[in-house]
Write a structure and sequence with these properties.
Largest sheet: 3 strands, mixed
Strand content: 5-15%
Distance between the termini: 44 Å
Structural class: mainly alpha
Radius of gyration: 20 Å
Number of helices: 9
Length: 203
């Protein structure tokens, strides 16, 4: 069954401390239409996506202007995530990630890795470090899956004392098994209550 794509085309507003940034997702001269998983259409310029994303650059021939303006590329990310991600592909003030709620931010972080949007990654990593205290499991999972060793080794120490249920809910299977083997068992079965005595590194 074909997916029904919304005809909604919006202007998304982002507030920053310094100014009001308007990001137009309905560019009049766009040559590429992308739909989010929740059916919001983004009218974009393929040249910007190809320059700022290795994945879109490699897929430059997947859709062509000659195919017509009605062709739509459907992505698995929500509109809230894409609203932020696409800003990193245009020459404009970048979004203030401090104003993005964590669930959306986590999606942006994953999308930046997935589509290789290198312009977004430095800001993502800085923000991830700020979440070490409040979302240690989610930060650990992100860092472990994408091989950010320093971030993972810092995050894992903030997970000491968390339950198996919490870890199982927030960690991917491979990260969860490693966390149980290296940290959970040491903490609960061997009485290593002082984090400095825990095994050295997670990665």
């Amino acid at each position: 069954m074909a997916t029904k794509i919304s005809e909604r085309c919006t202007t998304v507003t982002f507030l920053s401390r310094a100014s009001l940034n308007i990001f137009l997702v309905c560019a009049g001269d766009s040559d590429l239409t992308i739909s989010s998983s929740d059916g919001v259409l983004f009218k974009l310029h393929r040249k910007h996506l190809e320059v700022h994303s290795d994945v879109f650059a490699d897929a430059e021939n997947a859709t062509l202007p000659a195919n017509g303006a009605d062709e739509v590329v459907v992505l698995s990310e929500t509109s809230s995530v894409l609203d932020v991600l696409f800003q990193y592909m245009y020459r404009q003030p970048q979004p203030n990630l401090q104003l993005v709620e964590f669930s959306v931010f986590a999606g942006v972080a994953e999308a930046a890795e997935k589509y290789m949007v290198y312009s977004a990654l430095p800001a993502v990593l800085i923000r991830m470090r700020r979440y070490l205290g409040s979302y240690p499991l989610q930060v650990l999972d992100y860092a472990a899956r994408h091989n950010y060793k320093d971030l993972a080794n810092k995050a894992v120490r903030s997970t000491v004392g968390l339950t198996l249920a919490e870890a199982g809910k927030n960690l991917s299977p491979d990260t969860f098994l490693k966390w149980v083997r290296i940290f959970y068992q040491n903490y609960f079965f061997f009485g290593l209550h002082i984090t400095e005595k825990l095994p050295g590194n997670f990665l």
